[in-house]
Amino acid sequence: MRVLLVAPPGAGKGTQGALIATHFNVPHIATGDLLRDHVARQTPLGLAVRAHLDRGELVPDDIVLDMVRDAFLEARDQGGYVLDGMPRNMAQARALYQVGKSLEMTANVALHLKADDDELIRRLLARAALEHRSDDTEEVIRRRLALYHEVTYPIVEWYSSRGILVSVDAMRPVAQVAHQVLTALESMSTLVDLVPENARRSIDLTGLGAAFGDC
Ligand code: AP5
Ligand code: MG
Fold first, then answer.
1. Which atom of ligand 1 is closest in space to residue 35's alpha carbon?
2. Of 93, 98, 88, 188, whose CA–CA distance to 144 is shortest?
3. Count of CB atoms within 10 A of residue 4's CB?
4. From the CA of 202, how far away is ligand 2's center (Å)?
5. What is the predicted pLDDT for the residue at 215?
6. Are the C-beta atoms of 213 and 177 separated by less than 8 Å?
7. Whether residue 54 has pLDDT greater than 80
8. pTM above 0.85, yes or no
9. pLDDT average, residue stretch 75-85
10. Is residue 179 a contact partner of residue 16, using CB atoms and an 8 Å limit?
11. What is the reported pLDDT for 198?
12. Residues with CB under 6 A from ligand 1
């Protein structure tokens, strides 16, 4: 299964990404985690991107693209991937598609986690009290959200037109979101390699919350 996550800060890319990766036994490639690891190790790349992360700005496209290309090469023989944190803009979406095509690893599903800004701010400020991520201050959280709405959200429409978009309501508790996501992905997993991309249709599960409410 090859899944990429498109979701605002705090919607649960890391949380759900880890659960999906464990369920399908594929690597969880999280661009933010990879970048923070470089910052912590003070590598040349880490020193170059640190200010971008601290301010909540995007790092240059070619940096993340190189990182993800390397991670895809490592993931090649592992049955798929969960990509968390990329693409963040239309240029990245197009470039990622070309990388995927060249490695025969284009995404089967673009999973869109939907949540309101107020809830996202609440979650990230709650995390700030525990984890001290440098970009979890209210000012920087608002900048990250603004960037999401401005340059990331438009790519959702592109995945919808490609027929690989699955949208879920991420306002519910973690276990309920996970149950719905894994049920949907599991039912698609046997089909994704059989149905050509141009014959697929996007799936909007955001209205089905109640049906998944008892888990
Ligand atoms: P990144 O690390 O990707 O951060 P983000 O997009 O801001 O998202 P977060 O990691 O904060 O949230 P999440 O969606 O993973 O939610 P989580 O599961 O943690 O990127 C950081 C920076 O790196 C960027 O700002 C940029 O500078 C750079 N970068 C990364 N990729 C890039 C790219 N492609 N191009 C350019 N720059 C890039 O959950 C959040 C909290 O909520 C947790 O405490 C969790 O326990 C809780 N929670 C999760 N789900 C629920 C739920 N359903 N109910 C209640 N609480 C929940
Ligand atoms: Mg994350």
1. 23
2. 88
3. 28
4. 24
5. 46
6. no
7. yes
8. yes
9. 96
10. no
11. 66
12. 7, 9-15, 31-32, 35, 52-53, 56-59, 64, 85-86, 88, 92, 123-124, 127, 135, 144, 170, 173-174, 177
